[in-house]
Amino acid sequence: MLGEQLEAREELVETEDDREAMNLEERFEILDNLGSGAYATVYRARDRSRGGEVVALKKVYVREDREIGIPQFIMREVANLKRLSTPGHRKDPHIVRLLDVQSAEGRYRNEQIFYLVFEHMDQDLDQFIRACPSPGMNETIIRDFLAQILDGVDWMHVNNIVHRDLKPQNILVSCDGKKLKIADLGLSRSIGSNVVLSTQVVTQWYRAPEVLLHSSYSKPVDVWSVGCIFAEMIRGRPLFAARRKGEKHQLEEIFSIIGTPTTAQWPVESSITVDQFVQFKAKPWLQLLPEASDDAQDLLSQMLQFQPLQRVSTKDSLHHPYITSKASQDEVEEEEEEEERRVTRHQTPPKTAHTPPTRVLIWTSPTLLIPESSQTQPPPPVLHSRGGRGQV
User: Fold this and answer.
1) DSSP character for 30?
2) Binding-site annotation: residue ranges for ATP
3) Per CATH, which fold does 2-119 belong to?
4) Which residues are marked as active site?
5) What is the per-residue pLDDT for 171?
6) How far apart are alpha carbons 144 and 180 in whole angstroms?
């Protein structure tokens, strides 16, 4: 914990650059309110110190004794984001980028406002899923999105960081619907192999059984949450949507689908006992998700195992046939597109006295060629945002 605090303080000091000379209220032009929580409000804003770049601005309001210093949850988020942005073997870690951190005096006594500036993404995965017309997301998009989410979570796990709050609202989607970034690391923690952490993590529907049972937990809690997101992309609605709040009701919802565990599978340290629950039999995934492929059902069943140690890891998930078949297909498509671009760059149509040369314009998709006579570009895909969702 001390290491995290020192690292975060260092990061905060490093970001106090020449932008500090500009008044923070003058620096940002607020464009939209993206969402509010107990301690923070997230805005879409224009950063004048960055040439008018549109950013996601997270304003965190802290009222406490100044001698306490920087709140731990801010230090934790900043330190973990800095750690994850350190160059590694990942070309794109699929983690939202933290651009800057600043602080200022608040309006009230003992109030401080922390400004966390993030790259802006146009919508979250929850909005994307809801905006998809019937019959919903196709398998190609689902497979691609899942691979990106797994890659981002795996990068966190490689760095011994557990997100603890993965849900569609915390997965951001680019305007073209192709790039995903994991956001909101406010609850993320650096951990050892298996420790007891607080249970105030993750929206109830995406919470792993071991968290609901107040047992020790580690990286597999994120895999469970990703499994819930995976199922939601397939179904178009949450898989474990308990109608009533509370840990027991959520566990009953889970057991009604995956089956009630045996006494031998039940964690011994839990104060809740298995005999408090109805004995459900597991429902076949083919019955629950008939539209999903066999590989998709197999991977999902491995992600949503009751026992954490039986759950597939992010690394192994990325090597599952459901994902690797997508990777192989992408490699072929990339090679074909690169060859087409190479031919386009080096080929010049023959000139004649009666036929003027045709100039070729390349649109956002490298395989779409538009002649000069029809240069009007088709609009990019419109992904309607419902608003009111936090970006980070």
Assistant:
1) E
2) 58
3) Phosphorylase Kinase; domain 1 (3.30.200)
4) 165
5) 97
6) 10
